[in-house]
Every structure is written in structure tokens, then in C-alpha cells.
Amino acid sequence: NYTVPANSTIEMKYKVYVKTIADTGLTMSQLSYYQRQMTNTAIVGGISTTANIDMQFPNLNSSTSVTDENNNYFAAADEKLTYPITSYNSGDATYEDMVIQDSLTGIYQYFVTPDTTPITVEVDGVKDSTTYTIRDLMDGNVKKDLKSKSTINITFEVTMKDENTLESLGYENIESLVN
Question: Which residue of 131, 134, 154, 166 has the fewest CB atoms within a 10 Å radius of its CB?
Fold first, then answer.
């Protein structure tokens, strides 16, 4: 409690620390419906007053694709496949500690030892000096900050196993590998 003398004004200042996106537990799709303004209401002597401030959020737009080495749109034995993943932060805030993960669910077994294969990580065209592997990407161990209006590109290559091994895994004339 604080007593304000008659006919005087005081100004009270305080700081509010907003959690990082990761701390909120919200997904990017949930954030799109989240409030975009923070409102504070103070009551002084029974009279309320409010203050508003806009909040900044990241907004990711992501895509991935696959290309095969001979560009015939089929994954064949002993062929290299290239997977690029691209995300653009069109929002007004940095996405801190953004986790990039590709589990290769349902297709991992068709590749020749991909775990130790390095991946390329570039932010706004600048290659990251950290060495990441496909195993890091699969386990969700690739974490980056993505500033507002920035793009991250992750690229990795895998090689299909030989024909006999693929057949033993039940791989027969699959037209595309969906990841």
C-alpha cells in the first residue's frame, strides 16, 4: 500500500518479462490464434486504468521436398536422394531455440547408414559452423534461433540401399518415398 497525497500524481513503472515461445508450451499453429496484445489494468482508489502493448511473435512457413539423383521422380537402388527443408520466419520476433526434426519415419530402413551423414544448415545463406548429422536431425538435436524475416535451409543426402537389400525389406517399385 502506498498513500498518495491529495492533488499529486505518482508514476509507477514495472517490467514484464515474456517467456520464450518454447517456455509457453504452445505450437506455432496455436500461436496464430493467441492474443496479440497484452493489457494491464490497474485500480487506484477504486478507479481502473488500462495500458496496452502489442506483442511480437514468430510465424513460420516451412516446406520440404525430395529429389532423386537421376531426376526421374523414382527412388531406385543405390541412388542418392536429396531432402531440403526450408523455414521462413515472417513474424515480428525471433523464434528462439527452434527445434528442427525429421524422423524419417517409414523410410529410414531403405537408406545406407545415414546416421553419421552430415547435414547442411544455412541461415540467410550463411552456412552454420556447427557440424550436425542426420541422427541429430532425427533426434531433434538441431536447434537454432531464427530471427524475424530470416530463412533457414537444412539439406541432407541419403543413398538408397542395394537392390537385394531393398527387396528383402519389401521395397518393390515404390513410386515415391513420402517423408
Answer: 131
Q: What is the pLDDT of residues 109-141, one digit of tens each?
A: 999 988 999 999 999 999 999 999 999 999 999
Residue 164 DSSP SS3: helix
What's the pTM?
A: 0.71
**Beta-carbon count within 10 A of 1 CB:** 2
**Which residue type occupies 14?**
Y
Report which of 100, 168, 93, 96 is spatially closest to residue 139, judged by C-alpha positions.
100
Tell me if 145 sits within 8 A of 97, measured CB to CB.
Answer: yes
d(CA 99, CA 10): 45
Q: What are phi and psi of 108, to 5 degrees?
A: -50, -40
Lookup result for grid cell 520476433: 93
Within 8 A by CB and 6+ apart from 169, the residues are 109, 110, 161
